[in-house]
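Hello forum,

I keep getting stuck at the same step: I have a sequence, I want structure tokens, and every attempt I make locally crashes halfway through. Rather than fight my setup again tonight, could one of you with a working pipeline run this one for me? It's a single chain of 202 residues.
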Amino acid sequence: MTDIENDIQEENSVKTAPFRRIVTGHNEKGEAVLLEAAPPPRVAKIGEEFGPWFYEVWNTTETPAQIRPDGSEPPEDGIQLAPPKNGTRIRVLDIPPEDGRLENLTPEEAREHFAAIGAGDASSHSGATSRHAFMHRTETIDYGIVLEGEITLLLDVGECVAKAGDIVIQQGTNHGWANRSDKNCRIAFILIDGKYSPELQA
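Reply #2:
Ran it on my machine without issues. Output:
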């Protein structure tokens, strides 16, 4: 087990999500019922003190998504960055302010960070020329909704500050998130499995 995975395991046992997931379903008569109104059970901090908190809310594993009689979430091991193949994922992240420690993160350490969430190949940090240590790219469409605070979206060319209420549509581009403020940023992500067009695959 890596140091990052140890951090995840230790932190996971002491943190509760600061919100509830409210889940509906059906009873044996086919009537709509409330199944759950509680904090999502999967919570993990990825990385050391500078890493974000992941609050895993729900996932689906196919399109169209199966609506099951028992209303259960498909089981999943650990925290995975991308959604399941042909599926979706919703999560909330708490991204703390940066304090300079990421500036010295090596490409190998960045890959280890992403490998801890099943996406080592997503990391695109190549050293001094990278815009951010956590630059990465996934073959997904991501809707990011800033709930509180602000975050800077970094791209290969340009950047944009997203504030509470802003919605980012992230289309499989190489990107990173930098919290340059002095407060936590809470952002909800809905991730949808995607496929690059032939032009982007070339």
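Helices lie at 3-12, 107-115, 198-201. If your local run keeps crashing, start a new thread with the error log.
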